[in-house]
Design a protein that fits this description.
The chain is about 0% helix and about 40% strand. It is mainly β. The strands form four sheets. Strands 1-2-3-4 form a four-stranded antiparallel beta sheet, with no helix packed on it. A hairpin with a 6-residue loop joins strand 3 and strand 4. The termini are far apart.
């Protein structure tokens, strides 16, 4: 039996209609999935992403963050009531992703960090009372009255275990 093969032509303008879904994160109780939906903006020559929530029972998803921002790196608080994420939503950030918090019930995000450089990764503490993060700092730029720890070298042992 012969198969018919169809060819499809994709024009550059078609790429701006594509939405990318990434970064799925299950809530602590397993009832919701938080994820990002990204899109490219041809006029502004930028990529934007928003956070969405979808119930695992298959009911309708809803958008949690709005606006022309690049939201990502979704992290659930241990109690499942808050989502921390990185975003460039403050114009002063000039594209540097900082940590923001938004209630799962909805509302405007609030800014948590104001660093000179973007947040590269972060995690909630098990109690949900703290967030640990990784960001590059200029040599000597870390404030002395904070709990920032600047690591300049990582020693390495031959057994494969690193230690500070």
């Amino acid at each position: 039996m012969a198969t018919t093969q169809k060819t499809m032509t994709v024009a550059p303008a078609d790429l701006f209609r594509i939405r990318t879904v990434s970064e799925p994160q299950a809530s602590p109780d397993g009832s919701l999935i938080a994820y990002t939906v990204g899109r490219a903006d041809e006029d502004e020559n930028r990529y934007y992403a928003a956070i969405w929530l979808a119930p695992t029972d298959g009911s309708d998803a809803r958008r949690l963050t709005n606006g022309n921002h690049r939201d990502g790196m979704v992290r659930w608080s241990p109690d499942g009531k808050t989502i921390a994420f990185t975003s460039d939503r403050n114009p002063d950030d000039k594209g540097k992703g900082q940590i923001w918090l938004v209630p799962v019930s909805g509302g405007e995000p609030t800014r948590l960090t104001s660093l000179d450089r973007p947040v590269e990764d972060f995690a909630w503490s098990p109690s949900g009372s703290q967030i640990v993060l990784v960001s590059k700092v200029r040599d000597g730029a870390a404030p002395q009255d904070t709990d920032i720890r600047v690591i300049k070298t990582i020693r390495f042992r031959f057994d494969g275990e690193g230690f500070l």
